[in-house]
Specification:
The protein is mainly alpha-helical. It is globular and about 30 Å long. The protein is about 70% helix and about 0% strand.
């Protein structure tokens, strides 16, 4: 397994736990875990720091695959 795949899997698992399998929370949870991974802190309200969109989309895809 590539290192990137391992990171995606770990972050996807964290997003799944955070969303508690609520489909309406999955996208937000993915964004939060990517933000925390890249910036070292959870986002605060109105946080406008950029995230890696490709990483976010890969994590979202992995989450959706694992909860459906």
């Amino acid at each position: 397994m590539k290192e990137q795949d391992k990171i995606i899997g770990e972050l996807a698992l964290k997003a799944i736990k955070m969303s508690a399998n609520r489909p309406n929370e999955v996208e937000r949870s993915c964004w939060v875990v990517v933000h925390e991974y890249l910036h070292g802190v959870m986002p605060v309200e109105y946080d406008i720091r950029e995230i890696d969109e490709a990483l976010y989309l890969n994590i979202l895809k992995c989450v959706k695959k694992n909860i459906s």
